[in-house]
Design brief:
InterPro entries: Spore_GerAB (IPR004761), SQR/QFR_C/D (IPR034804). The protein has 365 residues and is mainly alpha-helical. 76% of the residues lie in helices and 0% in strands. It contains 15 helices and no strands.
Length: 365
């Protein structure tokens, strides 16, 4: 696609960031936080949101300093051809491991709540096929999909969550600040990966129409994500208490199933919410899948992204099926993902920013 086709609006960027970051893992966020900091999980979310706003702003500066070039070109220009291939390959591996892990979580949740008798292998294959179909439409189609899914997903879910305010016991959130500082640091480290997806701006920002509004949109996106996470975690604790949430795999889903909407005319409305959340999973999965295929296309000098997307399929399928059970999937998310996050979302962008600034100052001289 030609780089001067600026079709991404402010809302497009906002919707793409939000739908790339928030996925089905939000359902287990409360459980992970309660294990470490009890009812103070909302504090960790605020810390994580601030850290990730700093990271996404660094990424924005990198893109701006490099004339809004595509990601592979930025890395190649700053690190050189050989080192660039290693760095972008690290991004691709991280994305593939992340979406594969998320795909396994998604299929486990789908089997548990929606399609109990459907083989997991079939669900994984269908998910990959759907993602590949969306990728064939190029970036503009992907962005339009994000715009639609944002409204379809969030309005019903937020509407349902509002009823939890009347049914929850908010004394479960007391007392606050009862943990050691080390606990907050540990919780932030373990769950920092919940904001994975912010790097999608490397894909869509070059197509931005009004680039001068970018920083405001980035802040609004991270603010919305943080508030939504806080809402889900606080309501989960209010509904069940900290000790109960610790025992749940996906307290977010259990909370939604427990909410009673008086006078509702829809039977088993929680199934509708789960069906809507399937769409939300696909935005996270497809956006990062596309980004990986786009990087791979440039790295291997492949003309069509449809070919590079096919190369990723066997890796996603194998990695998604590799864990023997949900416990192993959770272990990967808690132990491996934070390390990959630090390498690819913190260390590499900071070094890339410093080199970009150095090269710019040299050109000015």
């Amino acid at each position: 696609m030609v780089r001067d086709e600026n079709f991404v609006t402010s809302y497009s960027l906002f919707a793409t960031i939000v739908t790339s970051v928030i996925g089905v893992s939000v359902f287990s966020y409360a459980s992970d936080l309660c294990d470490i900091v009890g009812n103070d999980g909302w504090i960790v979310i605020i810390i994580s949101a601030l850290i990730n706003f700093a990271l996404i702003y660094i990424m924005y500066l990198i893109i701006r300093l490099n004339n809004y070039d595509e990601f592979y070109k930025i890395v190649n220009d700053n690190f050189g051809r050989y080192l660039a291939k290693i760095i972008v390959l690290s991004f691709v591996i991280y994305n593939i491991v992340y979406i594969s892990n998320g795909l396994r979580v998604f299929t486990e949740e789908t089997k548990l709540y929606l399609l109990e008798k459907t083989p997991m292998e079939f669900l994984i294959i269908i998910s990959i096929i759907v993602a590949n179909y969306l990728i064939r439409g190029e970036v503009d189609t992907l962005v339009k999909f994000n715009e639609v899914v944002f409204w379809v997903s969030f309005i019903p879910v937020i509407f349902v969550l509002l009823f939890a305010f009347y049914q929850g016991d908010f004394t479960n959130l007391l007392p606050v600040l009862q943990n050691k500082p080390s606990n907050y640091i540990t919780a932030t480290w373990v769950t920092i990966n919940r904001f994975k997806g912010i790097e999608i701006i490397f894909l869509v920002l070059p197509f931005m129409k009004k680039k001068n509004k970018t920083s405001k949109i980035l802040f609004n996106s991270l603010f919305f994500i943080g508030i939504f996470y806080i809402l889900v975690v606080i309501l989960s604790v209010a509904m069940f208490s900290t000790e109960q949430v610790k025992l749940m795999l996906w307290p977010g889903i259990t909370m939604i199933k427990s909410i009673n909407i008086p006078g509702t005319f829809i039977e088993r409305w929680e199934g509708i919410i789960m069906a809507i959340w399937v769409l939300f999973f696909f935005t996270t999965f497809t956006n990062l899948y596309y980004f990986s295929a786009d990087i791979l296309k440039d790295m291997l000098h492949i003309e069509d992204i449809k070919i590079s997307s096919l190369l990723i399929i066997p890796f996603v399928y194998i990695i998604a099926l590799y864990p023997e059970n949900v416990a192993e999937v959770i272990d990967v998310g808690r132990n491996l993902m934070p390390i990959l996050f630090i390498i690819n979302m913190v260390v590499i962008p900071i070094i890339l920013l410093l080199i970009s600034k150095f090269r710019l100052s040299k050109r000015k001289q």
